[in-house]
Amino acid sequence: MRLAFKVTAQVGFFLVMVAWVCGAAAREVVPGEFIVKMKGRPSSVRSGQFLGKVASRASLKATFGKLNIHHLALQPGQNEQLFLQDIKNDPDVEYVEPNFIYHKADGVTTENRAYSLAEVQSLAAAAASTTTTSPTTGGATTTGATGASANNNGAVSAAGANYSQSHANTEIPQAWAAMSSASLDVPVVAVVDTGIDYNHAVFTSTGAIWTNPGEIPNNGIDDDGNGYVDDVIGWNFVDKTNTPFDDEEHGTHVSGIILGVTQNILATTLVPASIRIMPLKFLDSTGSGATSDAISAIYYAVNNGASVINNSWGGPDYSQGLHDALTYAYQHHVTIVSAAGNYGSDNDTNPLYPASLPIPSSISVAATDNYDALASFSNYGKQSVHMAAPGVAVMSTVPGNLFRYMSGTSMAAPFVAGLAALALREAPSLTGYQIGNMVINSGQNIAQLDGSILSGNRGDGYQLVIAAKAQGKATPLQPDYVASAPASADRAPATESTSKAGCGSVALIGKNFIRPNQPPPQTLMMILALSLLPLIVWQLLRRRTIENRRRFDRFVLNSEIRVRVGDRELVGQMNTISLGGASFHAADAMLENGGVVTLQIAGPDGQDQVQVEGRIVWNEANQAYGVQFEGAKLGALERIRSWSGGLRRI
User: Fold this and answer.
1) Could you count the other beta carbons within 10 Å of the beta carbon of residue 336?
2) Of 99, 113, 96, residue with least CA distance to 32
3) pLDDT tens, residue by residue, 307-324
């Protein structure tokens, strides 16, 4: 018997068309804040001279000395364009860029209920009696719960054990049985995320949370001189405190997956952890965080001994500062693991950072289901996404001593980070570059992944441990690498990209929908145009100037449409739709000009959802209603565009 789970229900099937309209996308940034890198080698004299020149116009928020980078905030009343022009013309400045905002890679499906420790242990015990595949013979074996024995990781040993956090055949219990019990090396995995509930019983009972050996708790002194007072268990870069507690639940779930790859966190008796997890909070309670805080967290992780960094977050904006920070991690032999993204798009053509950064020790991870198929939401990339890991209905820890199923590349990435930690226990002297390659190359090749990701492999615990034990005495090595911006990267300051008003899109909310996790928001984003089928409405508003208007093909689309405005559900009829816009005739007079609506789009397979908000407006030219977006959700366009097709052009 396998652990049972439920996922968010969806109502009906939907087919959507979408088009890019109204010009280039604007970027989401922290207003008035910039990342500035100095030329040449780090120099306190040169940096001091530069900071002296800008002191009357901008305040210094942080300095990363070994990166030669400063984080500046413009003083109130200053002319931003003039300031930026002066910075760019300064002979000591290598680059200046906006302080971009990144977002957690949302779990796409989340079971609404949470489980207690007793409940998950009961489910895990039931799952112990199942049919699995032997790592040595490939044959099916059946192990009853009463006949299993416990190994040093708290798992039922032998090939018949079932890994109970997900059900893909990743051979995790077999890896536990093969691990070197005498290993004294304890790898540190930095979780750069929303924080961790470090009071969760799984972490307290196992001692899995990293502690700073150079810091004396609660004495109000920076004992180790690293710039952080009483940073005993990591740091909260959002609130600037020594309590990196998870106020969202994403980081706690990620951390439970990392630990769960190295030992059975659902066992009745939990054993001491063989790795440590370093909590570094840079995403706030909404799952959003600034580049400056991401750099701070990465810089802290490297300088305090992390050997693996997990990034279950990202965005479309290239940051040279983030690239430089992760290159610094690479230079210190750190393995970097990043979620490929949950928008069903090709990262080769639509990069997502940091997953798409070509750092040699970086692993970009797609998500697969329990049958090794690429998850419907998962990003992919033949050249830029390296491997896959289970990311559908994964059970893990959430705050409050609870557990929950979640899905997403956010769940796949920490599985790979846990694999990297397993490898480091067996081969601690190898570099992040060597560990990364070993993790990728030891995976099981899955035919249905060939053509979608670089290796075609899904992570495998047993094969990795065997490879790591064989290569444990290999000579450490890694190639030289210099971070350079991709040719396509937009390096202009944020003020040079602006949102264009007058464009919008419409989707509908059906009755009884359960709100899923959202794709990351982007307040200064490209204006979208969405076309919709049953229970969906889509409206393109004209550009305010005729000379900027675009023309598109039109398609037949006969559909009843429903729009929820507050507690009212409004009904209309759509007959045609174009890639440039669509209109509908309201059957309800309550649909008033200026009304705010919440809109929901669901994919044709019923497994993907996008939620957006907008304002009802009247299109005088078409004599029809539409919706004008005041903000759009990052990733919504790519996810909806992947659903396109099937309509007849007229």
Assistant:
1) 27
2) 99
3) 999 999 999 999 999 999
**Residue 246 among the catalytic residues:** no
At 494, which amino acid appears?
A
DSSP structural state of residue 269 = S
Q: Show the domains of the chain with their CATH numbers.
A: 17-24+499-641 (2.40.10), 30-102 (3.30.70.80), 115-173+185-471 (3.40.50.200)
The one catalytic residue in 103, 200, 250, 386 is: 250
Question: What is the rounded CA–CA span in Å between residue 519 and residue 341?
Answer: 10
**Given a cut of 90, is residue 376 above it in pLDDT?**
yes
70 is catalytic: no
Adjacent-strand bridge partners of 74: 58
**pTM for the model:** 0.71
| E strand or H helix at 174 | helix 172-178
Q: Is 410 a catalytic residue?
A: yes
Catalytic member of 410, 452, 505, 559: 410
Distance of alpha carbon 306 from alpha carbon 287, whole angstroms:
23
Helix pair angle (409-426, 461-471), 10° resolution: 30
CB 336 within 8 A of CB 361: yes
Longest Cα–Cα distance of the chain, Å, equals: 77
Tell whether the torsion through CA atoms of 476, 479, 481 and 486 is positive or negative.
Answer: negative
Question: pLDDT tens, 124-151?
Answer: 777 665 544 433 333 333 332 222 333 4
Of these residues, 47, 103, 193, 338, which one is catalytic? 193
Q: Which residues pair with 85 in a beta bridge?
A: none
pLDDT (average), residues 620-648: 48
Strands 235-236 and 276-281, sheet pairing: parallel
75-120 residue pLDDT tens? 999 999 999 999 999 999 999 999 999 999 876 556 778 999 889 8
Q: Give yes or no for a cis peptide into 354 (omega within 30° of 0).
A: yes
- Cα–Cα dist 442/372, whole Å: 16
Structure tokens that stand for 333 in this block: 């032999």
User: How would you classify the pairing of strands 554-565 and 528-531?
Assistant: unpaired
Q: Fill in the DSSP letter of residue 65.
A: G
Which distant-in-sequence residues (6+ apart) come within 8 Å of 376 by Cβ?
A: 344, 603, 605, 607, 608
Closest CA to 457 of 445, 471, 474: 445
Q: Are strands 288-290 and 235-236 parallel, antiparallel or unpaired?
A: unpaired
Residue 69 has, within 13 A of its CA and on its CB side, a CA count of: 25
The C-alpha atoms of residue 109 and residue 95 are separated, in whole angstroms, by: 40
